[in-house]
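Incident review: delayed structure delivery

Summary: a single-chain prediction request sat in the queue longer than the usual turnaround. Root cause was a stuck worker, restarted by the on-call engineer. No data loss occurred. The affected request and its eventual output are reproduced below so the record is complete for anyone auditing the incident later.

Affected input:
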Amino acid sequence: MDFNGLSIDQAPPISAPLRFFLTAPLFGIFAGIMLLLSDSASLMSRYSLDAIVVTHLITIGFFGFIMLGSLTQMLPVLASAKIPKVTQMTFVSYLFLLLGLVLMVMGLERSNATALSVASFFLGGGFLVLVLSLFYAVMKVEHLTASIKAMRVSLFFAFVIVLMGVFLLYGYAKGDITQLHVVVANVHSVWAIFGFAGILIIGVAFQVLPMFYVAPRFKQFCKKRIVWIISFGLLMWFVLNSYAPAYALYAKIWIATFFWAFATAVWVKFNKRKRPISDVTVWYWRAASIFLTLGSFLWIFDEFFKYEYIVMVGILIGGGFILSIMLGMLYKIVPFLVWFHLNVMGYMTIPTMNEMINKTAAKVQFVLFILALVGFVFSFYMPEVLVPSSLAFILSMAILEYNIFAPVWIYIQTKKKKPDFDMNAFSMT
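Output delivered after worker restart:
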């Protein structure tokens, strides 16, 4: 691993990201249970309540928690960014998002306007507290890298989609579902997937692939231009989709082409690694490249089918691309955090990062996850596949929770012992 350029002395308390990471798989399990209790017919419509609930258990409960937890850790380490009152901000954000998402699910399932109104406040507040804190921190960074620039753009899209999300949820609370609601929902979903999550993943890849996998660095054109090219495409799509829908396809082709180019670049770089050792995290990156390619092209062709396959696009890109990357990175980030923080405290005789994760359990989790995704796609044509696919997804998330908690348990047990080397001896007085 290459730690060159990291400001490890700026790392926040380990509790800041871990509370997000440990909670995310629980929402994944909850989403799987909701899928198990639903039917494929209702899930095929993106506007059905079942589909909305499951989608946001994944996008907010998993994507949101993992992304915010990762940014809390990565911005100080990658860019020496100082997040104001990071401990308090992360705790408030975590608590608001947790309460908000639970109330949102209850409100939608029971058509409870009060729960939805309160949920819009908590979710909006929870996201904005941390997104604005992160944006403030990243705007203060002086040494700008390609990763930091991408994070800036990603956080801008995050801010916009949060405002859109509050508007949409408040609309459900008031029962005011107009044509504007549908238009905003469309922009909200596309900018969330490609603008917030997609650009963030691209920015993280610039730093993570060389650091964790000793892969070749991205070319300067890609690092300097790709984020702006995609951002331009998203803005162009917004304008065309709003005022000239007949031409929105061209913007879709623009966006999908450059995401496909990124997927291809990731695949090629893994083939050119200096140490081509394969593990489950490499499998996740490769799977993400395949799903992103399939999803991007299906997103284009779906224009000719009147959005008949838009939910399938969401499964391929949201589940196959974004979720795969996050699962793979959790297996790297959580052991690294535990190893790093214990070393800083003077503990030397601790398991290595590779030893903290049960490799067999991780491989089983990967297989179950891929089978679940493929099953969800086929459930459009074979409804009987939905039940085993949901069970596979639930079990996959349960194993993930175990695999994340295992390093944390090592951290808890190790801290009960006396450090091998007292780092306080070197503190300034």
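Verification: The chain has a mean pLDDT of 88.
Action items: add queue-age alerting; document worker restart procedure.
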